Amino acid sequence: MKTQQDAAIFLLRITLAFGFLSAVASRLNLWGAQSSGWKKFVDYTAETNSFLPHSWASAIAIVSTAAELSISILLLLGYQIKKTSFSASVLTLLFAVAMSISYGIKEPLDYSVFVFSAGAFLLSTFPRYSWSLDHFYIDNN
């Protein structure tokens, strides 16, 4: 049972990290023709945060991309997983709320943003993380 839970925790951590990385890669045109590109992302950011001044879209896009990139790297490394995954949960919950306000509840449900947020929150609740820098650090101190 413990090995299955360790594997599930590891897979949750890695899939959350790659989910963030994929979004960042799309904005930076790393997915080729399937990429959204930076301009489309900034436009989408403005639409999603329609309740904020349009002039804030670029700053929000930069901050959210930096946060997603940082979170993905930390999750991949397995460093500070509790704090990082809780931050991921809050960030994606903010995305879901903004999407709900601007587009209605269907949009964040269709894109599983609430599920992503809940998964990140669940990850933050485990007492240990095998196959991570946190595990290595804790076991050697």
What would a concise description of this structure say?
With 141 residues, the chain is mainly α. Helix content is 74%, strand content 0%.
Task: Supply database-style keywords.
mainly alpha, 0% strand
Helix content: over 70%
Q: Overall pLDDT, averaged?
A: 96
**Order of helix and strand elements from N to C terminus:** HHHHHHH
Largest sheet: none
Give the number of DSSP strands.
Answer: 0
Distance between the first and last residues' Cα? 26 Å
Gross morphology is globular
Query: How much of the sequence is in beta strands?
Result: under 5%
Number of helices: 7
Q: From the alpha-carbon coordinates, what is the Rg to the nearest angstrom?
A: 16 Å
Q: Which structural class do the helices and strands define?
A: mainly alpha
Spans of at least 5 consecutive residues whose pLDDT stays below 50 are none
Overview of this structure, please?
- It comes from Chryseobacterium vietnamense.
- This is Membrane protein YphA (DoxX/SURF4 family).
- The chain has 7 helices and no strands.
- With 141 residues, it is mainly alpha-helical.
- The longest helix is centred in the first third of the chain and has 26 residues, at 2-27.
- The chain is globular and about 45 Å long.
- The two termini are 26 Å apart.
